[in-house]
Amino acid sequence: MAGNFLISQDWEPVVIRKKALTAVARKDKKAVNATRRSGAEIETIRKSIAGTNKAASSGTSLNTKKLAKDTKNLAHEKVPTKLKKSIMQAQMDKKLTQTQLAQMINEKPQIIQEYESGKAILNQ
Q1: 95 in the Ramachandran plot: left (φ > 0), alpha (ψ -120 to 50) or beta?
Q2: Of 35, 53, 103, 108, which is least surrounded by CB within 10 A?
Q3: Which pTM was predicted?
Q4: Alpha helices for the chain (secondary structure H)
């Protein structure tokens, strides 16, 4: 032996346990009864709306009530007919297609089509 080493034994007990119970297992009747028998305290809390579906059966939701109260017209302002006709007339006078007109004003052809059909939403 090369040196004097002090060798000692560790005689502390080793406890091997099962893994802790999950939340579902702790709520099981058997687990609750076993806990009662062992004398541990058990706290039970009843939730006020447990087991009911009051939100679904309330009739109208909060958003529905807000919409019902709102009396404003929520539609977007569309292109006036006079503007539609003037764009189409100017395009025909210059003998341009929608694509050519769009290139001249640096806009997409789809925007010109929407203005002429009256579906465009005006940006002010």
Answers
A1: left
A2: 53
A3: 0.40
A4: 23-26, 29-38, 54-57, 62-69, 81-93, 98-104, 109-117
